[in-house]
Each structure stands twice: as structure tokens, then as C-alpha cells.
Amino acid sequence: MKILMLNGINLNMFGKRDPAQYGTITLDEINASMKKLGAELGAEVECFQTNSEGDMCERIHQGFRDHVDAVLINAGAWTHYSYGIRDALAILSCPIVEVHMSNIHAREEFRHHSVFGAIVKGQICGFGEDSYLLALRAGVNAAKHAQKK
Q1: Please, how many CA atoms are within 13 Å of residue 33, restricted to the half-sphere of its CB?
Q2: 123: helix, coil or strand?
Q3: What DSSP designation does 128 have?
Q4: What class is the 2-148 domain?
Q5: Where are the domains of the chain?
Q6: What residues are annotated to the active site?
Q7: Which of 90, 102, 113, 146 has the largest count of CB atoms under 10 Å?
Q8: pLDDT for residue 71 is more than 80
Q9: How far is CA 90 from CA 20, 39, 61, 80, 115, in A?
């Protein structure tokens, strides 16, 4: 099973950016935890991060061509306004899980809305690094159910 973990704009700054909101864990540490849990669940996890919206869309397109089994995405601020990334995600036929370390519904008003909401299987937010691990478990389970159909 192949799981694609996508991280968007500014998330390479985890560990430095707003520790009160995101803690001190780095994206590299999160990626390592994801790969470790993925192996335990029988899934290969590929992690990708970019600050370029076009590069994110291209990686989503590649995921479609690679027939990944599930996509997990923390698009950062793009979550709230990138219809380009939303349209790229809508091309996928696999389950998509939206992930956020912070509880976006308890933050600034503009963060309460996700343009991806209508096309994702679900959203996990507010549990710090555990949001990623919960999303991976959900993505693997959703992919297994999709394969049975």
C-alpha cells in the first residue's frame, strides 16, 4: 500500500514557527514517525513538502499517475483558499484525509473554512503530531475499504 503525505506552505518551519500553536517538533521528525507507523501498518509512506502551489499540484498529479492508495494533506494556509490544489485533489480516485496540527476551528475565523472539505474523506485536527498519525491510520483503513469495493 502506498500513502502520499503532502505538506504545504510554511510547514517546513515546524519547530520554529509559532511553538505555542505547533509545538517544537520538526517536519523531519513527523515524517520519521509517519514512516515508522506506516511500516507497522503495512504501508509505504512518501512525504512531500513544498512552498510552491504549482509544485503541490504537480505532485498530486503524479500521485494520480502512480495510483497511490490514499493521500493525506496538510496544505497549511492553502487549505482556506487554494481552489487550484482543491481541483488537483478532486482528480484523485483514492481516499483523501485532511490533517492539521492545530484545531483550525478554534483559531482565526478565516481558518474555519476548508476549500477541500467537500472532497476529502475526513479531517483530523487539533492533536499536534498525533493528528498526522491518526490521519495515517484513517487513510490506511479507508484505502483498505476502497480496495474491497
Answers
A1: 16
A2: strand
A3: T
A4: alpha beta
A5: 2-148
A6: 22, 100
A7: 102
A8: yes
A9: 33, 27, 10, 16, 11
